[in-house]
Amino acid sequence: MSSELSNARVNLLGKSVEELREFLAELGEPEYRGAQIYHAIYAERKFDFAEMTNLPAALRERLAQEASIALPRIARRYLSADGTVRYVLALTEGKPANVEAVFMPEENRQTICISTQAGCAVDCRFCLTATLGLQRNLTAGEIVGEVLVALEDNREALKPQTNIVLMGQGEPLLNYDAVMAALRILLDQKGVAIAPRHAALSTSGIVPGIERLAKENIRPNLAISLNASSNEQRDQIMPINRKYPLEKLLEACRNYPLKPREWLLFEYVLLGGFNDSPEDARRVVKMLSGIRAKVNLIPWNPGDLPLKRPERERVDEFQRILIEKGVPCFVRDSRGQDVMAACGQLALAETAAAAT
Ligand code: SAH
Ligand code: SF4
Q1: Which residue minimizes the CA distance to atom 13 of ligand 1?
Q2: Of 29, 134, 319, 342, which sits 20 to 30 A from 76 (CA to CA)?
Q3: What is the spatial distance between Cα 10 and Cα 27, in angstroms, rounded to a whole number?
């Protein structure tokens, strides 16, 4: 076979069951073979056509010539003392880029944090990913691939439940179509089979994206990075607030059609001396009135930026005020800090690695 032909192999990773059916029909094969391949890739994590023994041998050989299942490659793997694994994944299809995914084992489940873009254009002042700028959007196949690689690399140690959080690099709602195509596969019970209630998408507050997500049949839980108690404050740390100010953002949240037992999650990165006072806490309570909300407080994870981690007493006081006023509130200390796997640190980790 000539090398031109092998270069033209079609990557099947990220294709929906309909797309796989069409691809098989184009090859002159029965369409149901598409569903079998869908199941083999996403549910069984078979990435070599030779292993798909329910397909006729001739078809397996033909697929090996005409198609590929191109997963992101693990470029580096860092193991934290708390069991967290941080992956640097090299994307080899299209413009080369590195992204990160984090695997966090717990007693009865694992949580996988994935990236949706290489870098990010939103430019939040407290986040090191912002210093990369936007390198490129990930494709649906690359996003699904992050989860499959992390699951496969921990195959022997997997617990029955998998949670995914779209909280790595990038702003998921600025790569909407690829993110939704990936989620349809990840949350499909015939696909990767993650329960929609075990998935969460975090956004800096892209209002049109929130409005679009509201109309999806199958969707993950929505998390909003609030991070401030007034427009003036939010403008300073999240430039996106000038485009979608708090009134617009909160209006979209109020209109978001929550199912029974569903909540909106508000993340609030606490920056010492900036947004962590009792007055801030009381303003947050007011802002969220009328919204079925939970709040996650995230003490800022330091990087090479002129900001401070909050004092523990301030964090506790902030939490106490919210709970007293009836807003469920949790403090999230990021995991994997010793391997730079914590929120907002992924970019720093890579820059540091590149310098060594
Ligand atoms: N772009 C999306 C998702 C990725 S960021 C978003 O902004 O929501 C995931 C979370 O990490 C966000 O809530 C963000 O506010 C938080 N974060 C970013 N940098 C951080 C840091 N240095 N310390 C703690 N949390 C941080
Ligand atoms: Fe982008 Fe989220 Fe970081 Fe803001 S916090 S720069 S939106 S990744």
Answers
A1: 225
A2: 134
A3: 12
